[in-house]
Amino acid sequence: MIRSGLYSYTNTIPAVWEQLTVPGVENYVVQGAFGRALIAGLEGPGFAVWQQVLEPATNQYFPSVLNGRGIQLPIALKGSWQGRVAGTAAEWRIPEGQFNLLADAGQGLEYRMEAGKTGQWCTLYLTVDYLAQFVPYFPALESFVEAAAAGETGLPGSSPARITPEMVLMVRNLLHNEFTGDVRTLYLQYKIPELLLLALNRVAPAYLPAGDIRLQVYDIDKIREAREYLLLNMEHPLTVIELAHKVGLNDFKLKKGFKQLYGVTIFDFLLEARMDKAKTLLLETDTPVHEIAFATGYKNVSSFTAAFKKKVGYPPTIMKRQKGG
Questions:
Q1: Which of 75, 83, 229, 288 is the most exposed place for a label (fewest CB within 10 A)?
Q2: Where in the chain is the domain with CATH 1.10.10.60?
Q3: Between β-strands 161-162 and 109-112, what pairing exists: parallel, antiparallel or unpaired?
Q4: Torsion sign over Cα 255, 256, 258, 262
């Protein structure tokens, strides 16, 4: 699965990485302009599981080290990373300790991490037919599997989910176990579905918790669009009804769906974003307080000051003075 032509690779492992190698299989060090990575994988019928340890030398996007056409389930064990389809602007992010599903139609995926940090993740690579076996038990997967089968690349629409301690232990057992040869393949055939069930129950639950509403991929895309609009147009805030009309949802679905996806109300999300932006401007720029108030969507300084003090515990002028020493 190693992508040839773009990178050089060797099976000579640096001493610093010896304890991270996967036993019983060939481990490779891949090098390129992006930095270097330690990779190793195990394969079985319809699936593969690969570990990647990355030391990026740049913050720029770089083509995937592996050819992973089909379904991917990347699990970020250490470090956060971003991905995109080559040549496009739309990005997805998987923070440390989280995972998601991804369809790769072979259009060329690119990734990036913060230079100077070390990242480690384990990725399950599945054929579309393999994942399709789980659709009867996780109906929310149906449209995602159909899109993947049709050659589309992207996420199923759900936000990344947090890995559990049980999942972390299972990943370690997949990569580090006492079995070899056909017995190891048999072991993987039993354990991969177990890990996948735990993962699917978090990103595509078979049932809706009480009070939740069913969200289609279209709905989730529109809720994400609303979130981006809030962040990019903070100085021109809309009412919830206006925002719903702008993205093409009714206000009930937008309010309910937003809370479902992000765990906070639209109001609380916007307040947090405003305060984060205000803190950045106060501490890192010389922007006057009254301009910061307008830049964060407040009509006057008194409203901004009251909201800031309630959230932070003291008025913005105090933080401004802290910047000055």
A1: 288
A2: 217-323
A3: unpaired
A4: positive
Amino acid at 212: D
* 39-62 residue pLDDT tens: 999 999 999 999 999 999 988 888
Tell whether pTM > 0.85. Answer: no
Q: 182 in helix, strand or coil?
A: helix
Q: Which residues contact 185 (CB under 8 A, 6 or more apart)?
A: 44
Q: Residue 130's closest CA among 85, 182, 181, 197?
A: 197
Query: DSSP of 276-301, one letter per residue?
Result: HHHHHHHHH----HHHHHHHTT-SSH
Residue 191 CB neighbours (<10 A): 17
Helix boundaries (H) for 204-288: 217-232, 240-247, 251-262, 266-284
From CA 251, how far away is CA 195, in angstroms rounded? 37
CATH number assigned to the domain covering 217-323: 1.10.10.60
State the amino acid at position 175 in one-letter form. L
Here the tokens at position 182 are: 């056909």
Q: Please identify which residue in the block is written with the tokens 């971003």.
A: 82
User: Position 292: which residue type?
Assistant: I
**Taking a C-beta distance cutoff of 8 angstroms, is the pair 7, 52 a contact?**
no
Question: Tokens 């790769």 correspond to what residue?
Answer: 104
Low-confidence winner among 7-11, 82-86, 263-267, 294-298 (lowest mean pLDDT): 82-86
According to CATH, where is 2.60.120.280 located in the chain? 8-203
* Sheet architecture: strand order including 91-94: 62-63, 109-112, 81-85, 91-94
- Are 157 and 214 within 8 A, CB to CB? no
For residue 103, what are its two tokens? 């369809």
What's the CATH superfamily of 8-203? Answer: Regulatory protein AraC (2.60.120.280)
Using a 10 angstrom Cβ sphere, with 0-12 exposed, 13-18 middle and 19 or more buried, the burial of residue 226 is buried
